[in-house]
Amino acid sequence: MIYAISLQSVSKIYRTYAHGWDHLWEILTYRPRAKVFQALYPLTLHINHAQVVGIIGKNGAGKSTLLKIVTGTLMSDEGGTRDVSGRVAALLELGTGFHPEMSGRENVYLSGAVIGLSVDQIDQLYDDIVAFAGVEAFMEKPVKTYSSGMFMRLAFAVATCVEPDILIIDEALSVGDGAFARKSFDRIMQFREAKKTILFCSHSLYQVEKICDRVIWLDQGRIQMDGPPSEVLPAYSNFLSDETNSTQLNHKKKVGENPPSSIPPDKMGHITNINVHTENETGDHLTLQSGQSDLIIEVDFITDPTLPPPTVAVGITRKDGLLVSSASTENDNQKIPYHSDGKGCARITFQKVPLLKGHYTVDVFLACENALHLYDQAQAVASLTVLQEGVEQGIVTMPHQWQTAELNL
Q1: Which domains does the chain carry?
Q2: Rounded to two decimals, what is the model's pTM?
Q3: Is the Cβ–Cβ distance between 360 and 319 less than 8 Å?
């Protein structure tokens, strides 16, 4: 069988020296003076054509090292082999091949040559690259004069200018601000719909679950699990929960008191107002009675009216950072109607909230029609204190029924 990507016993060791002369001293004395770090232990991996594979793991787990070996920008240590079938486009460190003193035009041809394009091919693609990046007026100027956004847009346009057989993405599904973030996101999704092989490395487990049909979990340079998202992601989430007590609540931001009434220039949509309340109480701090109180969350927003209607999602998080529950209009097949000016609203009611006693917060998200590209978010917009009768333990109360009559034994 011919795989899109086939790795046999690939590995990577990095050696660092405290002083420049230590390496020379090691050669002369035959005594090791290097500090050795095993970034990737020997692993064998086969990926089929048209598979969308997520790569997850903590920082330093070996994800970027693995992707660089796949792209060929990093060589495996002795004994490892790499076989890739087809043209590879990699969104790793965008623009690393750009020369700051060269013009945008010169860098397009330089980068195109690096990814294997001929001058004639670049000539044919040049106008489309420039138009997609939106930097026509600056192509004859050195890229060192570009803003960071212009630089990233041109680098992304070059990296994705050809139809790759294999697309490798490290961390970001989209780059740039506002409209270009949406354009870059749509281009990547087009590759997925065209059945290209995709390797997607991300800390966003939601996006991994949404777009991938296989997930590889790396930890300390080794594969911990390799399988469907439904099996790997819960195991990885449990691993993260066991490792640390999250303090995310201290760092979350809320919707401002005076949010803008129009879309900020760097966004495609914005949450304009959030109202969280029960039947009897409204505000940032609410008290609920377990199994009795209804929780209502109302979200107002404005988005670019030329785009499809967006999606809204809410999450309820426990004080220690555990996501207890979530709901989204996309998952529940609810379409949000909104006006021609892009304004809209959504309301969700959690009836007779089954949470048991504890402290929780409410998070709200505004995203594209596929619930993948995030437009805006507001975290910890309200805190919930849940009270209960009795001493039932846990996070939620589940519907149940006891049978206590005598049973035939």
Answers
A1: 5-243 (3.40.50.300), 249-387 (2.70.50.60)
A2: 0.77
A3: yes
